[in-house]
Specification:
Elements: E1 12-13, H1 15-22, H2 26-38, E2 42-45, E3 49-52, H3 57-76, H4 83-100, H5 104-120, H6 125-145, H7 148-165
Helix pairs in contact: 1-2, 3-5, 3-6, 4-5, 4-7, 5-6, 5-7
Length: 166
């Protein structure tokens, strides 16, 4: 719900509302909050509740720096017949098509898939896991940045070019 934008940055997560909606116990929901907190998606404020994080510019810059560092090495060491290259090509094409509608949520989803495929070129379950957590944070950051067209438009053609070059 956080990743899809159904719950916004800064929004309070209320156990008594979410537990029945998700058909889980409050204990299960608390454990989920703990895991989401570990992944940097929510913050628990004592006596105030649990809130969806609202990352600032330094966190946004850092997240993109981490992603670029991981992906650059994965691309350098990649080979054209790796199965992830087909995922990259499909995701890049999906993003391009979604931009023509325009459906910026779908563009964002395609972008996350594209970058996940780039990381998959490294054949590292550890990096895949790190990227899964990072991509959730990035989706949250896209919401904070606002104007999804501005955020995503410049990367659509770049993703297509990268997929083509690999």
């Amino acid at each position: 719900m956080i990743v899809t934008g159904e719950i916004s940055p800064g929004q309070r997560l209320i156990e008594t509302e979410l537990a029945p909606r998700l058909n889980v116990s409050r204990n299960t929901l608390r454990e989920s909050y703990r895991l989401l907190s570990r992944d940097g998606l929510v913050t628990h404020l004592h006596n105030r509740g649990v809130f969806v994080n609202r990352p600032g510019l330094p966190e946004i810059i850092d997240a993109f720096h981490v992603r670029r560092t991981i992906e650059t090495q994965a691309l350098i060491e990649s080979h054209a017949d790796h199965p992830a290259t087909r995922r990259m090509q499909k995701a890049a094409e999906d993003g391009l098509q979604a931009s023509k509608i325009p459906d910026w949520q779908a563009v964002g989803t395609a972008d996350v898939e594209f970058h996940g495929a780039v990381v998959a070129l490294a054949d590292s379950p550890i990096l895949d896991s790190l990227y899964a957590a990072l991509s959730a944070q990035l989706r949250l950051m896209f919401d904070v940045l606002g104007n999804p067209e501005y955020v995503h438009m410049k990367f659509i053609d770049r993703n297509v070019d990268i997929a083509r070059m690999v």
